[in-house]
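In line with agreed milestones, work has continued on tokenised descriptions of protein folds. One protein thus recorded appears below exactly as we store it:

>
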Amino acid sequence: MREDQRSGTLSPAEEKAIQEELRQSGASCPRCRAAFRTTPIPPRGDVAYVRTRVLVECDRCGLRAALDLK
């Protein structure tokens, strides 16, 4: 297993694939293919720009990431 897989860091390709899947429907973990649990991240009031973000979590392998949905 690569170091970034052990640490839970997503590669740019994994991040892009998850973002695309989330725009289409639900996403699954690129490492174990289990369905992600998704939680919207509300925008912060102290930031001038607004981003649509979501937290994705895999209950099977423990992968977690906060992603922008551009």
Notes: Residues 3-68 form one domain.
